[in-house]
Specification:
elongated; 3 domains; single chain; 434 residues; Rossmann fold; Hypothetical Protein, Haloacid Dehalogenase-like Hydrolase, Chain: A, domain 2; alpha/beta; 47% helix
Length: 434
Amino acid sequence: MRAGERKFAVRDYMPPVGMRIVKTVVAVFLCFVVEILRGDVTVAFYSHIAAIWCMRDSARETRVNAVQRTIGTVVGALAGLVTILLFPNLSIETRPQQLVHGVVISLMVGVVLYVTVVIRKREAAYFSNVVYLSIVINHIADANPYLFVWNRFLDTMIGIVIGVAVNSFRLPRRRNRKVLFISGLDDTLLNEKSLLSGYSRVELNRMIDDGAQFTIATVHTPAVLKERLEHVELRLPAIVMDGAALYDVAENRYVRSYVISNKTAEVVSGLLRQRGMNWFSNVIIDDTLVIYYQESDNEVYNQVIREDRRSVYRNYVKRELPPGEDVVYFHVVERTERLEELHRALEESGLAGQLKVIRYASRNHPGYSHLKIFNHNATKENMIRYLREQLQVERVVTFGSEEGRYTYTVAPEESRRVVKLLRKEFEPLIWSRR
């Protein structure tokens, strides 16, 4: 196998069977069991539909959908009952009778929709009319349509109860809510394509909803964090920009930051200017990260601007760093050999004790590297220490891809392992020793 090639893995094309699928199968089977026990008075189809509809990724979504389905069933069944009472002899034997039947039913559909608006449950409108039409179109001519209305309502409620019960079922577990869990982002929680698996998203949200103290530590800005974890409901502040800031995703604000003072920032800017380099100055203004940049003939630098400024989460401003501004970090994109020289110049400038400098090769531009300059206190360890004190947790469990630095080391191709390990740590079975 040539360098850079990955061995074919079935999991890349065949995702694992999730618990939602398993629980849906169980719920549908239980509806069949109830149908057998109730005999001919039931139609399990309606129970099946209701159970499947209620089966969602989280308990909260399940409750919301169960309420929607219940309200829709009640409104639709009552509307069907009213139609039968008002038009007991509504027949569809002749074409004129069919036309009258169509007019009555169509008008009642409008009434059902209006009722859902009046009671401020518009989201239940679809289900209300599904129930209503199943009664008045297929069964209004039955010998005892009232019995069908009742059984239609009961079948749906059985499906809702079964769906909610199955989806809420959990093996007895402890919840370790006094543990702080922190995961890296790239090559740890995300896969090689910088994507979060569906399994990880569902399980993370469920455990966070259950009280797991979980957050992220990344070298990236909040913009990247929001883009890549768009559907994860982080409730704790995330450690961003390699420990330069603590960012509350839910509140869109910076809780804490370590910045380069404006005086030191002027010295750094001077060094960069002397060497004919262009750079990005990242500054926090009113909880907004502003990125100052300059005109440049560096095509890689310009390409970074073109690609990143498309994001609604990034705020690029074309101008020099305004006087008196503190800087969260400087970012330089240049040829590797030039950045090596810059790195040495920074070390010789006498600023080494005030700054933290990191340098890494560009993935997309061979021969180029990135260099970032932070306050020397801007470390993930400092932010973790601060978070631990604020949350008063008993211990911290970390996940990362560098051997020896974290509680658990996760290989880039094992991104789902983070959530599996998190689950074992956060909610061990009550009979386990963990």
